[in-house]
């Protein structure tokens, strides 16, 4: 039978090993063929069966009340993996040896690059669109009169890394280790995580506004309560609405990746960011300007908007507490997202001070691009390393090659899967940014022409940012795993926040350097 061109193209991008693994899982579910799979860490993963579905459901629901649910347990093999008891039937020695040699699906660098390339470009054009939007709205009345909104921008865009990419990484790992093969288990996991994300988005949005007030007004001695309430309302409403929309899109991507056989680790985190920046910035600009217009005639509107979204928080807390995995993170998952918000807010302060200088106004359009690309690439690497550790190690133990003192060459020099992915991701930086720079230039946005000096300085800053992030990712994920924390929930918020801070700081330094050496063209896009 003839196949459609698009599905055929997608299938050519999928490693044969990964497709075979997905088909085997589905066959185990539908036919109930018992073939235990041995992992290097000594655990055994048993196949799913029709007869086990009811017991699996009852066990997964009873887990909620056992009080002994560890952060890494939802993603680990053995009984927790599928909520079923281990099968006691003995298999032949040949089958056992065959299964013992297979852990993770093999991916060639070309297949990996092809899978990453499309969502990477999609995410990049999303950040370009966000930069264009920010370049336009910086001239709106709300942004000109309440410049502290710029401090909110990296913190709210950082929610993509704090929440959406973290959700994508958790669900990608769940798919790869077979945690989402059961429909009931899958939807319990999805609904619990979405509700958890709404709680975190509302709280982080409120805290980001408080930080913006402190960083923006206290040092200058200026404070207006009406502007503070507007900041809180805009931040909370933007975080809530954007998080809900992106969460729904993210779940669709994960489920779709599973059905098509594409490794969700390669596509989920970039797509999580593809339109995330654009959606978040558009909502922030629209709500901020709308509330600013009501400030004089209806000053109570801002307070009502903030109160409405804050009052929904208990509802989301109740829903998220129903699933043991999200309930655990409801209590323990605040440290990384709050810390990441503070780190991103420092980047926002740098952006606010830089934008205030008319000579450096061109930084606005490039900030979401360099921050978004760096965050997307390091999130892919973090998700892949986390999946590797879930397959090959138990919490508290790291593979032999990761032991000892860390040094940067360890991230890029080698033939392992994580070394290859780091090399591929670093090689994507220069061509990716060139495409996005010329896209911005063709749209006649920004305030800086693409002179050779500007491009060299900008690309050097972008390459150095991603190099640092990939090195930090390798060290951080292994360190968190060694300490017993789930990297899917803890590493990406820190890494994307560091990406925001490094990107904004390096970009500001680049623009200062360009101004000092005389590359002072600021007429483009005015």
Automatic annotation (TrEMBL):
Compartmental location? Cell membrane; Membrane
An example Gene Ontology CC term for this record: plasma membrane
Q: Principal localization? A: membrane
- Any single GO BP term: metal ion transport
Report the residue ranges that make up the SLC41A/MgtE integral membrane domain in this protein: 153-286, 367-509
Give the reaction(s) catalysed. Answer: Fe(2+)(in) = Fe(2+)(out); Ni(2+)(in) = Ni(2+)(out); Co(2+)(in) = Co(2+)(out); Mg(2+)(in) = Mg(2+)(out)
Keywords of the record = Cell membrane, Ion transport, Magnesium, Membrane, Repeat, Transmembrane, Transmembrane helix, Transport
Q: Where is this region: Disordered?
A: 31-75
- From the UniProt record, which GO molecular function terms apply? inorganic cation transmembrane transporter activity; monoatomic cation transmembrane transporter activity
- Whether Transport counts among this entry's keywords is yes
Spans traversing the lipid bilayer: 110-134, 199-219, 225-255, 267-288, 300-319, 331-351, 363-380, 424-440, 452-472, 492-517
What membrane topology does the annotation report for this chain? Multi-pass membrane protein
What Pfam families has UniProt attached to this entry?
MgtE
What function is annotated for this protein? Acts as a magnesium transporter.
Query: Which PANTHER family is this protein grouped with?
Result: DIVALENT CATION TRANSPORTER SOLUTE CARRIER FAMILY 41, SOLUTE CARRIER FAMILY 41 MEMBER 2
The record's similarity note reads: Belongs to the SLC41A transporter family.
Q: What is this protein called?
A: Solute carrier family 41 member
């Amino acid at each position: 039978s003839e196949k459609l061109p698009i599905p055929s193209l997608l299938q050519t991008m999928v490693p044969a090993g990964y497709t075979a693994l997905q088909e085997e899982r589905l066959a185990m579910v539908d036919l109930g063929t018992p073939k235990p799979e041995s992992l290097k860490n000594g655990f055994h993963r048993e196949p799913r069966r029709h007869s086990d579905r009811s017991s699996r459901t009852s066990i997964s629901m009873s887990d909620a009340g056992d009080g002994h649910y560890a952060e890494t347990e939802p993603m680990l093999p053995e009984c927790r993996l599928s909520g079923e008891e281990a099968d006691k039937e003995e298999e032949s020695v040949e089958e056992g040896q065959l299964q013992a040699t297979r852990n993770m699906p093999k991916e060639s660098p070309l297949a990996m690059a092809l899978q990453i390339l499309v969502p990477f470009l999609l995410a990049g054009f999303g950040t370009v669109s966000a930069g264009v939007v920010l370049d336009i709205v910086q001239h709106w009345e709300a942004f000109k009169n309440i410049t502290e909104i710029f401090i909110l921008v990296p913190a709210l865009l950082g929610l993509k890394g704090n929440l959406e990419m973290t959700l994508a990484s958790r669900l990608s790992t769940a798919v790869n280790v077979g945690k989402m093969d059961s429909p009931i288990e899958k939807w319990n996991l999805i609904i619990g995580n979405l509700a958890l994300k709404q709680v975190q988005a509302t709280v982080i949005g409120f805290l980001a506004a408080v930080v913006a007030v402190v960083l923006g007004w206290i040092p200058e001695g200026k404070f207006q309560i009406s502007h503070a309430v507007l900041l809180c309302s805009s931040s909370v409403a933007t975080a809530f609405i954007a998080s809900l929309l992106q969460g729904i899109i993210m779940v669709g991507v994960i489920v779709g990746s599973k059905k098509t056989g594409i490794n969700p680790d390669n596509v989920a985190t970039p797509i999580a960011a593809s339109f995330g920046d654009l959606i978040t910035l558009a909502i922030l600009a629209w709500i901020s300007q709308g509330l600013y217009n009501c400030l004089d005639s209806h000053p109570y509107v801002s307070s009502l908007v903030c109160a409405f979204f804050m009052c929904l928080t208990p509802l989301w807390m109740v829903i998220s507490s129903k699933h043991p995995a999200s309930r655990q993170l409801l209590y323990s998952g605040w440290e990384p997202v709050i810390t990441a918000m503070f780190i991103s807010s420092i980047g926002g302060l740098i952006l606010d001070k830089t934008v205030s200088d008319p000579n450096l106004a061109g930084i606005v359009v490039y900030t979401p691009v360099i921050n978004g690309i760096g965050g997307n690439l390091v999130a892919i690497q973090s998700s892949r390393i986390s999946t590797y550790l879930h397959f090959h190690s138990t919490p508290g133990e790291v593979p032999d090659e990761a032991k000892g003192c860390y040094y940067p060459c360890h991230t890029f020099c080698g033939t392992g899967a994580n070394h290859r992915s780091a090399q591929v991701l670093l090689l994507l930086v220069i061509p990716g940014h060139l495409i996005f720079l010329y896209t911005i230039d063709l749209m006649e946005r920004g305030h800086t022409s693409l002179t050779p000096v500007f491009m060299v300085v900008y690309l050097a800053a972008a390459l150095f940012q991603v190099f640092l992030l990939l090195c930090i990712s390798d060290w951080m994920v292994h360190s968190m795993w060694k300490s017993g924390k789930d990297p899917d929930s803890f590493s990406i918020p820190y890494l994307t926040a560091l990406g925001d801070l490094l990107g904004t700081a390096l970009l500001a330094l680049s623009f200062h350097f360009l101004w000092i050496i005389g590359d002072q063209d600021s007429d483009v896009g005015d």
